[in-house]
Amino acid sequence: METINTNDAAAESLALEEATSKWGADIKRGLRAEPKIVAFVCNWCTYTGADLAGTSRLKMAPNVRVLRLPCSSRVSPLFIIKAFQRGADGVIVSGCHPGDCHYSTGNYYTRRRLAILHELLDFMGVDNRRVTFSWVSASEGGKWQQVVNETTERVRQLGPLRSERSSNTGKETGHDRTA
Amino acid sequence: MTELRELARKLLADGSVKVVLGYEEGPRGVRPVFVTDPAQAEKLIFDTRCVQNLAAYLNPRRQHITKLGKAAIVVKGCDARAVAGLIRECQIKREDVVIIAMRCGGVVRDPAGSSELTVDTVSDRCNGCDDREPKLHDYLLGVLPPPPPQSTRYAEKVAQLAGMSPEERWAFWNEQLERCIRCHACREVCPMCFCVQCTADKGRPQWIDCSATLEGNRAWQMMRVLHQAGRCVGCLECERACPADIPLGLLTKYVAQAVERRFGYKTCDDPAVPAPMGTFSTDDEQEFIQ
């Protein structure tokens, strides 16, 4: 599992581009056997929980790239939209349980924002099952393992986001700006 | 109409406002006008073709208008909701604008078309409108006309989309968004798109494609609609302004309905009601979260 630390919008965008840099090219070459998943996690709960899962030697699908953010409320819907545009097949957003936020209330705002995103994705025809929202605390290494494995399995069954769709989405349309 | 012209003349003559944002008869139907001279108040009109949401011109990023000085604005119910939204989100101050509200019997879809309101010509925004007599006003003019005919176009489209599978919906929106030429008219015409610098204009980081690619168009509309969550006043000006005839109102209205269903918030013309995305309840539904 790779981790990228971010601290400002430009770095976050760059980190996302780095994490997904080869994916567009992979689609072109038809090398998409494994689903690609981006996880946006908060620094205080889920990241620590994922760390615990790692140090506990829990077996997890290697398909998830973790991006660590200060708080789940930093997750702009744009991150998720961009991750899909850059070739991700699935996205995980995870933070502290309600009431446990390091900044007291950040995740309550996240919950409102993600509820709307969840509905809009469905209305625009992106299968909701590609996006997993979860609360994982610092002690829930096992839950993180479950979230990762279940999401990977679900996305694997749904197939790659682009090739299953109409012909005009099969080709790579996002420009690779890191190249 | 005489009432409106006289009020505008009075406000401009006694210097209480420097400009009146209203409607005039243009070469191709009704268009917005900025009246700064009391003698020009004769230009002002108000009828069912006064479709445009003039609150877009109150936007502080439009400095060429704000620099004219204190403004009076002619509003319908939907426009009053937008003015309230701008006040709610601290874009303008209540005391910096004089609101001339018109009692409204609905508007047509095309400001260049016939002024007759029928089920075919009435704007979709007028469906179920509660604000035909705006509560947010300094002056309330006119006589309340009978309610407009109610079209069922929007409900039919939503039902049609709801009945589709995700793949069919994806195909539907592909077909629609392929036509987008990224002119950003939907943004410029929107009274609630008030960012000084839009994320779509940013190069570092560049969140979405600037050019009119299908994926870029999809990302642009998703971003625009999400930014409008809890803000959209349902005037459907984005849809009217769209040169590619993309049913953008479906997206904004759908999100507005989701906001209402989940957070019990409906856009209203009371600026004191907090914006739903800037607040929260510990009891918000989280059935979609693991």
Structure description:
The complex is a heterodimer of chains A (179) and B (290). Chain A has 179 residues and is α/β, with parallel strands linked by helices. Chain A has 6 helices and 5 strands. In chain A, 53% of the residues are buried. Mean pLDDT of chain A is 82; it is low at 163-179. With 290 residues, chain B is α/β, with parallel strands linked by helices. Chain B has a 5-stranded mixed sheet. In chain B, a hairpin with a 2-residue loop joins strand 1 (19-26) and strand 2. Chain B is globular and about 60 Å long. Chain B starts with a helix and ends in a 27-residue tail after the last helix. The mean pLDDT of chain B is 92. At the A-B interface, helix 1, helix 4, helix 5 and strand 5 of A face helix 5, helix 7 and helix 9 of B.
Topology:
The complex is a heterodimer of chains A (179) and B (290).
Chain A (H helix, E strand, L loop, with lengths): L2 E3 L3 H11 L3 H7 L7 E6 L3 H10 L8 E6 L7 H9 L4 E6 L10 H18 L7 E5 L5 H18 L21
Parallel strand pairs in A: 1-3, 2-3, 2-4, 4-5
Helix pairs in contact in A: 3-6
Chain B lengths: L1 H12 L5 E8 L2 E7 L27 H4 L4 E5 L1 H12 L8 E6 L36 E3 L11 H10 L3 H12 L7 H4 L25 H14 L9 H5 L6 H16 L27
Parallel strand pairs in B: 1-3, 3-4, 4-5
Antiparallel strand pairs in B: 1-2
Please give the largest β-sheet of chain A: 5 strands, parallel
What general form of chain A does the structure show? globular
Number of strands of chain B: 5
Largest interface, counted by CB within 8 Å of the partner chain's CB: A-B, 46 and 48 residues
- Low-confidence sequence ranges of chain A: 163-179
Q: In angstroms, what is the radius of gyration of chain B?
A: 19 Å
